[in-house]
Amino acid sequence: MIVPPPTRPVTTARGAQSATSPPVTVPAPVAPPSGTPAPSPIIAAPIPAKPSPPTPEQTIAALAAGVLPNGSKGYTVQAGVFQSGDNARKLIEKLGSAGIPARLETRVQIGPFKNRDEADLMMRRLRELGVTPILQAPL
């Protein structure tokens, strides 16, 4: 039979005696040399969530309200080309009564739309009204 060696009481840092193991010495933190500022903790700024892009229906509603998307180099849908300005105005009135905002240049155009899906949705609506649209890609 093996008998462990007897333990003797050890005085801890607070002056109390312990019959177990000797105290452990922990090194003090090292201060930077004088004149050197302590490093600041790095705190990452929260990353803001990206807003989801509007749906094609929301873009059409915004156009109807007179709000154009940022930048004007999106898709436009041409609803007609006329030799007579009266025919162009009639189409503008027809589209307006259907809630579709359009403007008269020398062509009747709707948009700009930010992407092809939004432009395709408008083209489907125009076909439902008996209008044959032409898609114009951004310049």
TrEMBL record:
Region described as Disordered: spans on this chain: 1-56
Signal peptide range in chain numbering: none
SPOR domain: residues covered: 72-134
SUPFAM superfamilies, per the entry: Sporulation related repeat
UniProt GO MF annotations: peptidoglycan binding
Entry protein name: SPOR domain-containing protein
Pfam families: SPOR
Organism: Chitinimonas arctica
Family matches, as InterPro entries: SPOR-like_dom, SPOR-like_sf
